[in-house]
């Protein structure tokens, strides 16, 4: 595979864009080499500037549940664009997508649309603090909730002690209000709550983690968090930016039967356009401006192109009763194929899978939290990544990411992927 044009474009981009990219993971720092510059995409495939074709398992980091350039989404955007791209006034379309989202997702009465997952989580935290009149939040090491200050807190500091910023620019004052807990460890969370009695506004969690590879919650973990929150007047925030409208049409709340107090969305809800959202029951959402005192706003929030794409996407997901099952079956097939190929070549690995999310960890022990995820062999991952790329399979350029399965993938595509794993496994 040749990447000449991508190399030249990357060089040029580095002159005018920091690191040549507008979001860091795209730069291939973790795996080395030149990032692939995308030219177009259709269905299961992405095409780069050198006209290479890749079977895509990133899918814009999640949004493309039905594949790239999905016709109903594309048509909806084109039609809307002809009528004006932004008004800064309310539109009927916003109510239509809100009504559908509220109908699809359990346990929410109202939803507010924003422009990214970061905005959704940042706003959810402010709302939780305003509503509870408390300052501290608990987040889990290895969970990602966007790049707003409260969430950029280093893992590894003592869980009960104050956090420290891991990004310069985050003030110590902000960091001390974010407490770090261990994913899937309820006793750890309990001890943090106990040590900070009466001070915690919210616990925010990816109810299925996808940002340290894919890590599903262990049996009872979410239920226990729910109980802990109820007993201590803490709001439970599910960050379903990755899982919402993906793992079930109502997200993890539906899948696991556990209610959150506030839910954050992004990715799929925007059908590939910049959208995020947060939602809750009336009592909480009515605390938000203009009805309530907690301020939150956006010039382009509820943008007609974004809402048109999102609505077209949600309608498809809502109407297709077999979709989740099909996605789950394809992912299971891929899981079995990859496991067999790696086992045949004695490559140590652990595969985590739930619904249409899957990740391959080059580690022997179960991967249940950040510490175990970090034990994966990164050198093996690098070889694996480049071996797959050179065979036309595009997976995320970091071991701490999830593969996203789309409905556009055929069993032929999956077989091609498994064959590529078999090939590269010989040199791992
Ligand atoms: N929450 C989760 C769970 C995410 O996976 C992401 C993005 N990967 C975000 C929040 C942030 O979303 P965005 O990049 O749209 O700001």
List the helices and strands and how they pair.
Layout: H1 4-16, E1 38-42, E2 45-48, E3 53-56, H2 71-81, H3 92-104, E4 110-114, H4 117-132, E5 136-140, H5 172-175, E6 178-181, H6 186-195, E7 200-205, H7 221-231, E8 235-239, H8 251-256, E9 262-265, E10 276-280, H9 282-285, H10 304-319, H11 323-344, E11 350-354, E12 357-361, H12 370-373, H13 378-390, E13 393-394, E14 403-404, H14 411-425
Parallel strand pairs: 3-13, 5-6, 5-7, 7-8, 8-9
Antiparallel strand pairs: 1-2, 2-3, 4-10, 9-10, 11-12, 12-14
The structure holds 4'-deoxy-4'-aminopyridoxal-5'-phosphate.
4'-deoxy-4'-aminopyridoxal-5'-phosphate (PMP) binds at residues 61, 116-118, 121, 144-146, 206, 210-211, 239, 241-242, 266, 276.
Keywords: Cytoplasm, Isomerase, Porphyrin biosynthesis, Pyridoxal phosphate
Catalytic activity: (S)-4-amino-5-oxopentanoate = 5-aminolevulinate
Main location: cytoplasm
Q: How would you describe this structure in keywords?
A:
globular; seven-stranded mixed β-sheet; binds 4'-deoxy-4'-aminopyridoxal-5'-phosphate; pyridoxal phosphate binding; 428 residues; 2 domains; Aspartate Aminotransferase, domain 2; EC 5.4.3.8; Aminotrans_3_PPA_site
